[in-house]
Structure formats: C-alpha cells, structure tokens
Design goal:
Blueprint: H1 5-13, E1 15-22, E2 29-33, E3 38-41, H2 47-55, E4 66-68, H3 74-77, H4 80-87, E5 90-94, H5 95-99, E6 109-113, E7 119-121, E8 124-130, E9 139-145, E10 148-153, H6 161-167, E11 172-176, H7 181-186, H8 191-198, H9 206-216, E12 223-227, H10 236-243, E13 254-256, E14 265-269, E15 273-276
Parallel strand pairs: 3-4, 4-5, 5-6, 10-11, 11-12, 12-13
Antiparallel strand pairs: 1-2, 1-14, 2-3, 7-8, 8-9, 9-10, 14-15
Helix pairs in contact: 9-10
C-alpha cells in the first residue's frame, strides 16, 4: 500500500537525539528523545549531577517525560528517586527490579513492565529484553519511533540469541565494551571479581563486542557507541582499536563514551546522520 502524504512527512522527519550523560561503574544514564518524548534510560548519578550534565546540552530535567530503569545496581539507579520526586516523573521499572531496589525510595509514579513485553511511553515504543547479568531482572532495550530504532545492551555477560535478535536492524547501537581481557587478568582486582566480570552474568569484553557488532552490522546502521568501559581494565583507545574492525571500513561513526563527561549529542534521522560536538566522548 502506498504511503500517504502525512506518512511520508513523518518518515522524512523521524529523528532521535541521544546522549550518554555518563557511562561506567560510577554511574550510567542515557538521554533519548524523538523531540516529543524525552527519556532517561537509567539515572545512576546524583540528581544534581544529572541536572548539570543535561544542562551542558541545553536540556532541563523538568522537561523529561519519564525514567526507564534497566536493573537495580546503584550505578544505574542512584538518582532515580530524587528526580522522580523533584519533577513528578513516572518511573518505568520491572516489579522484580523495584523489589530489589528499596534505596530508590518513594516514586512520584511507578509503572511496572515485564521483560519481553513491549510498552509505549507517549510517542516511543519500548521493547525490554532479557540480558545475562547478576541482577534480579535485568533488561536491555530497543526504543523505536517512525521506523527508527535505538538498541541498548550494556551490563551483560554474554550476547544471547535473544540479544542479537532484538538488536538486529537498529539504526543506533549502544553496546557494552567493559574490559580488555588481558588488562582484566593482569590487573589489580581479586580473582573472584575477575571471574565475575568475565562470567556469563558479568560484562562484555572488547573482543565480545567486536564479535557482536560483526553480526549486527547492516546497511542502515548509522552510529555505534561503546559504553560502560572499565576505568581500571580498559582504555578508550584500545576499545576503539579492538572493536572498529567489525565495521569493515564502513563509514559508520563510532563513539567511545566516558564516565566523567557526557558524550556529544548524537542525532540520527530517517536516512541521515549527524553528531554535534566531539564524537570521541572519551
């Protein structure tokens, strides 16, 4: 069936603005907006820190639509409760995650989702999917609108067939590249912690992410972001060097996110890509 004139207009103007406000073991938060609905995926910094990092891009926490929570670890939920209460923000969180996170405190609004079941927040279609991590009910996400799709998979020990299937055909991929295997093995962490990180419910290595991206690369992929790098067991340059061969010389920007400052604002549109500011994000 041919597209109507209004559908053609919608498809031509479909766009996402995405910024990693912070990414790493000290705090994680991703801003995702289609211009109408403004989400925070996790809020693992203090409320004040998130306000400050939003402000660096001319954004205000009071303009957020909602917060979506991936799992209960403190580096993903530290600011959830205070932001919800301060701005009356609804929080979308699985029932098991909420039970495992009493430190969140009272929420202005709470909406329960089930991993595997899509839901909608205003103009955005959210599909949470199961990931392998040592948390009560951890989730990765795809966020979609008007044919554009953002895929987010961080804090996972292995990339299962489900993960690969849900991330397939994403226009923007945010993937964990937590550690370099040799840096981890030769580093200062105690052996049990090293085993946890490298285990099936731990974190993806640079090499794991290169393999995953090799499988996910496709002609419509606009941008790749490497996330949740360990400050002890990884290096931004090494992560980039290890993962970039998966792109096979395609003209696809790759951003390496950081802990101490927010990334550039990445914009993807229906057929075009633009990034404003320094895309290194390191």
């Amino acid at each position: 069936m041919p597209l109507s004139a209004s559908s053609v207009t919608e498809a031509a103007t479909a766009a996402f603005n995405v910024c990693l406000l912070a990414s790493g073991s000290k705090g994680n938060s991703i801003y995702i907006s289609d211009g109408t609905t403004n989400l925070l995926l996790d809020a693992g910094l203090s409320g004040k820190a998130i306000e400050n990092r939003l402000a660096r891009h001319g954004l205000a926490a009071g303009d957020l639509t909602a917060i979506v929570v991936s799992h209960e670890h403190s580096d993903h939920i530290r600011g959830v409760g205070v932001l919800s209460r301060r701005y009356g923000l609804p929080v979308y969180i699985s029932a098991a995650t909420l039970r495992a996170a009493p430190q969140i405190g009272k929420l202005a609004q709470s909406h329960s989702f089930s991993v595997g079941t899509p839901f909608t927040i205003h103009t955005l279609q959210i599909h949470p999917f199961a990931i392998s991590h040592d948390a009560a009910d951890p989730a990765g996400f795809t966020i979609a609108n008007n044919g554009l799709k953002v895929g987010v998979a961080t804090d996972l020990g292995i990339a299962t067939a489900m993960v690969r299937e849900r991330l397939r055909a994403a226009d923007l991929l945010i993937l964990e590249a937590n550690h370099d295997v040799q840096m981890l093995y030769n580093g200062p962490y105690p052996w049990p912690l090293k085993q946890r990180i490298k285990g099936r419910t731990g974190h993806l290595s640079n090499e794991d992410t290169r393999q995953l991206l090799t499988e996910l690369k496709h002609d419509r992929l606009r941008h790749v972001v490497l996330a949740h790098l360990s400050e002890t067991n990884n290096d931004p340059g090494l992560a980039r060097e290890t993962v970039v061969p998966a792109l096979d010389n395609a003209d696809i920007p790759l951003t390496v996110s950081g802990q101490d400052r927010c990334s550039a604002m990445i914009r993807i549109e229906g057929g075009r890509h633009a990034a404003h500011g320094d895309s290194s994000g390191s």
